[in-house]
């Protein structure tokens, strides 16, 4: 068994559904060449870094020599230098220099513990096991008619609860009163369909009234089609129709606002949410406009979601009370349960 | 009249009149001539029927007064027993326990024009609204879908009225008719609708937003079988008898079967299971009976069986 396998088996092993999946551990922007970025996934301490050619790496934050924390070291000539005895690791994670014995070729086993890495949609993704799937699709990313803005990080306790909140339109009038809903006139949420799609869950459109429905700050009727792509990745494509007749001419029937949502489950009760918004209407808002609005909305969300108890989400439906309007959240919990996801759940 | 704490009244069934094919009008009066609370258009009441069934029926407010409440009930052979009891067993002279009228479907007080949409027995609250709006002088047009003239309640009053369009089963189908009606609506018109859930679903997805007001007939609790039936769990082969008055969910839970549920009232969808054989009678409001047929599923917390045996994929 190599080091990576033995770490993966340590204590309580992470269930395969999560271990063999891709998870966002940083935004691309956060990991700049020359810097060691400590990060954490499922309670495992990791370090992310980038070489001068732009290649990103995610390793265990651990030197194989005596277990020092690599993120406390530094980068020199595209090598990670351990802060304790100065061992040098190159991009293949191989130790190429032991300063205490400079002329000796380091042993083959002197290797940092690397993980699979992909960079996509403005995020750095890692898989600590063996990838069972590709990272989920985000079609608008490759569509030049869409402007993309990465937002976050936003801190939440449970990433699953944060995701469930993301796919729940019934909280809009209360948590986002005046922005995504109207508190005095909450929309009754009509029956919507939840179906399986590519191994995930998807819904038919859910209609809600939004007084400031998108960064243009116009009142819209919004039609959300949601998807749960992975246990900690979700998405919606929102069709927006301007309801103010005076401003209706600003809109087009093809107007869409999409959000690709990711949660990094740091440990059982801490997570970091990062999103990428994609929109195709004009005039295009500035990046700062989009972020200002998302920062507000996600701050409103985390203020409530972080009060939810238990902090670990119950995947047994009996433990909380569901309603027909929560059908997607409910199917999400069943889906997690059927996948055997137990980390961060009760 | 003194109202009890639970706000129920004992009223006598004083008349049953023919309304339309399969629809009867029931009149209820207080015994002592006391004054009944007033009824507004869109209101309904609960009828407590023998066997513990509680059913909601819309009041036909234009026929109600301080001495009499009137409800219209359609006999639903596939239904959950309330309408069958009223049609087949109820007798004039009987006493029935009745709740106070409640209105979850009130008309707004705006002066905008109104479009009323009724499907089938959904005409009962809508007709009340129609009368109330006409009386108040507000612009209104009623669209009423039914199978045929014979099936249409108040057909005689409505057939030649200028602000009424009757729609009978047509070749183009109700969906496209409804679409055409909506397409012709002036922008500020408010829409009130009551009818089958497919119709209401279509309305809700038609972008009317706040201008749309619908009333759905909601489940009043579990459908209890009138006779026992058996449930076979296909994966384990376990077989259980569900006695009258029990739910499948309760019997399975008591036997220690691991089944999912949450609301136990037919509104959440947690207890949905696949039906491999047999004919469930659905009591939930998550999906329509048609949708259940398509999904081959049932909610075991609140549904029963028309066949002696159900084979479930559990
Ligand atoms: S209202 Fe739903 S959690 Fe509080
Ligand atoms: S438990 Fe909620 S529908 Fe059956
Ligand atoms: Fe929110």
Number of helices of chain A: 6
Q: Report the major sheet of chain A.
A: 8 strands, antiparallel
Per DSSP, what share of the residues of chain A sits in E-state strands of 2 or more residues? 25-35%
* Oligomerization: heterodimer
| Count of strand segments of chain A | 18
Describe the largest sheet of chain B.
6 strands, antiparallel
Helical proportion of chain B, percent range:
10-25%
User: Helix and strand succession of chain A?
Assistant: HHEEEEEEEEEEEHHEEEEEEEHH
* Helix percentage of chain A: 10-25%
User: What form of chain A results from the Cα inertia axes?
Assistant: globular
| Alpha-carbon distance between the two ends of chain B | 52 Å
Q: Radius of gyration of chain B in whole Å, from Cα?
A: 21 Å
Helix tally of chain B equals 7
The secondary-structure class of chain A comes to alpha+beta
What's the N-to-C terminus distance of chain A? 31 Å
Mean pLDDT of chain A: 94
The largest contact between protein chains, plus residue counts on each side, is: A-B, 22 and 20 residues
Strand content of chain B: 25-35%
Report the C-alpha radius of gyration of chain A, rounded.
22 Å
State the main characteristics.
heterodimer, A: 346 residues, alpha+beta, eight-stranded antiparallel β-sheet, four-stranded antiparallel β-sheet, 6 helices, 32% strand, globular, B: 314 residues, alpha/beta, six-stranded antiparallel β-sheet, five-stranded parallel β-sheet, 7 helices, 19% helix, disordered N terminus, binds FE2/S2 (inorganic) cluster, binds fe (ii) ion, oxidoreductase (chain A), Cholesterol_7-desaturase (chain A), 2Fe-2S (chain A)
């Amino acid at each position: 068994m190599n080091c990576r396998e033995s770490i993966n088996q340590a204590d309580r092993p992470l269930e395969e559904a999560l271990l063999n999946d891709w998870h966002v551990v940083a935004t691309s922007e956060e990991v700049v060449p020359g810097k060691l970025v400590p990060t954490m996934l499922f309670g495992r301490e990791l370090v992310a870094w980038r070489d001068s050619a732009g290649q990103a790496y995610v390793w265990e934050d651990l030197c194989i020599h005596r277990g020092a924390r690599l993120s406390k070291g530094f980068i020199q000539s595209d090598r990670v230098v351990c802060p304790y005895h100065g061992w040098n690791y190159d991009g293949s994670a191989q130790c190429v220099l032991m300063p205490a014995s400079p002329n000796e070729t380091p042993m083959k086993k002197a290797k940092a513990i690397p993980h699979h890495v992909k960079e996509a949609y403005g995020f750095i993704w890692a898989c600590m096991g063996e990838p069972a799937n590709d990272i989920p699709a985000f079609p608008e990313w490759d569509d030049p008619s869409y402007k993309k803005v990465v937002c976050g990080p936003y801190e939440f306790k449970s990433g699953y609860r944060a995701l469930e909140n993301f796919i729940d339109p019934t909280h809009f009038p209360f948590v986002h009163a005046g922005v995504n809903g109207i508190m005095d006139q909450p929309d009754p949420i009509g029956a919507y369909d939840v179906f399986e799609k590519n191994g995930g869950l998807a819904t038919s459109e859910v209609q809600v009234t939004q007084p400031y429905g998108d960064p243009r700050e116009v009142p819209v009727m919004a039609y959300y089609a949601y998807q749960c792509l992975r246990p900690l990745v979700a998405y919606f494509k929102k069709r927006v129709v301007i309801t103010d007749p005076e401003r209706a001419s600003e809109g087009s029937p093809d107007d869409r606002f999409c959000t690709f949502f990711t949660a990094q489950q740091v440990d059982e009760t801490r997570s970091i949410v990062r999103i990428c918004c994609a929109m195709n209407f004009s005039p295009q808002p500035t990046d700062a406009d989009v972020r200002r609005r998302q920062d507000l909305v996600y701050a409103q969300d985390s203020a409530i979601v972080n009060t939810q108890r238990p902090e670990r989400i119950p995947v047994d439906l009996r433990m909380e009370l569901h309603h027909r309007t929560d059908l997607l959240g409910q199917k999400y919990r069943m889906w997690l349960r059927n996948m055997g996801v137990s980390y961060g759940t009760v | 009249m003194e109202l009890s704490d639970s706000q129920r009244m004992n009223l006598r069934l004083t008349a049953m009149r023919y309304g339309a094919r399969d629809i009867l009008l029931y009149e209820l009066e207080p015994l002592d001539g006391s004054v009944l609370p007033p009824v507004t258009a869109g209101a309904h009441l609960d009828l407590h029927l023998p066997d513990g069934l509680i059913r909601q029926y819309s009041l036909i407010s234009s026929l109600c007064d301080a001495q009499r409440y009137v409800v219209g009930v359609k006999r639903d052979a596939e239904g959950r027993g309330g309408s069958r009891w009223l049609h087949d067993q109820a007798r004039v002279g009987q006493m029935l326990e009745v709740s106070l009228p409640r209105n979850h479907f009130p008309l707004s007080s705006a002066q905008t024009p109104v479009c009323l949409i009724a499907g089938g027995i959904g005409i009962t609250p809508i007709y009340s609204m129609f009368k109330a709006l006409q009386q108040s002088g507000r612009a209104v047009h009623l669209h009423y879908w039914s199978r045929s003239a014979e099936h249409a309640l108040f057909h005689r009053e409505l057939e030649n009225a200028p602000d009424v369009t009757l729609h009978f089963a047509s070749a183009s189908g109700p969906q496209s008719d409804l679409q055409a009606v909506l397409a012709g609506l002036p922008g500020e018109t408010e829409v009130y609708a009551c009818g089958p859930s497919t119709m209401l679903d279509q309305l809700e997805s038609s972008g009317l937003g706040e201008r749309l007001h619908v009333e759905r007939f909601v489940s009043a609790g579990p459908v209890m079988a009138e006779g026992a039936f058996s449930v076979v769990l296909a994966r384990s082969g376990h077989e259980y008898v569900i006695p009258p008055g029990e739910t499948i969910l309760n019997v399975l839970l008591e036997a220690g079967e691991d089944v999912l549920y949450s609301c136990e009232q037919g509104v959440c969808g947690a207890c949905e299971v696949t039906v491999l054989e047999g004919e469930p009678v659905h009591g939930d409001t998550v999906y329509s009976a048609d949708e259940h047929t398509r999904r081959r599923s049932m909610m075991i917390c609140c549904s029963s069986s028309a066949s002696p045996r159900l084979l479930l994929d559990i």
